[in-house]
Amino acid sequence: MSPVPITAEPVKTFKIDGQDVSARETESILQAARAHNIDIPTLCHLEGLSSTGACRLCMVEIKGSNKLLPACVTRVQEGIEVVTNSERLVKYRRMIMELIFSERNHVCAVCVVNGHCELQSTAQKLGMDHVRYPYLNPQLDVDASHERFAIDHNRCILCTRCVRVCDEIETAHTWDVMGRGIGSKVITDFNQPWGESETCTRCGKCVNVCPTGALFEKGKSVAEMAKQRQFLPYLVSRREAMIE
């Protein structure tokens, strides 16, 4: 039997911030930018998980279009010119960050991940030093029914990383999203207490991919918890090797 020929994946050449770059046609603008050490902020994206475009922080401009496009779910195209850091984008990203902070209750001084938080560090990088919008101050619950972990819905930014890692990596699909708009919340199983979940494997993957202090390990005090995400690229690479 003759070997099956290997077809090279087509490569697209284009520009990001005036720099000539190339990427496979199946890659996103965000992947291409990171491969060339070009920083585009994001909170919902995590390498190894599917992309959803939930946080909208990775919006970029493409010359010739008035639309802002999410870099994490926009495929590269031949000849396009991408702008990642214009005055318009900076203004837009700061507005998004301020809305995230105003929507729920992010009090960094008393958070277990203070100093280790992606939301906090991204806000600092974007130069956000105040919030112009009125705080909604919702009274959301804290579910500490799990034997090892807890979830504080006041700190959840609805990035759905926990949903995706549980579905795509652990394959338990314990987490999901209930509700719409500002009333949305992540839930376990059919909105039952986390500690009563029959599908949760107690693996802790959801806790470690969470970009804020919404999901945390019990027994941690203020600023004591640093998330560990090294497992994700390892598990993804092992799975791909098994498929091949």
Residues in helix, %: 10-25%
Mean model confidence by pLDDT: 93
- Strands ordered across the widest β-sheet: 2-1-5-3-4
CATH architecture classification name of the largest domain = 2-Layer Sandwich
Query: How do the SSEs run, as a string of H and E?
Result: EEHEEEHHEEHEEHEH
Number of domains: 2
Coarse shape: globular
DSSP strand count: 10
Describe this structure in words.
It is a single chain. This protein has 244 residues and is of the alpha+beta class. Helix content is 24%, strand content 16%. The protein has two domains: 75 residues, Ubiquitin-like (UB roll) (Roll), CATH 3.10.20.740; 137 residues, Alpha-Beta Plaits. The model has no long low-confidence stretch (mean pLDDT 93).
What brief labels describe this structure?
Ubiquitin-like (UB roll), 3-stranded antiparallel β-sheet, 10 strands, 5-stranded mixed β-sheet, Alpha-Beta Plaits, alpha+beta, 2 domains
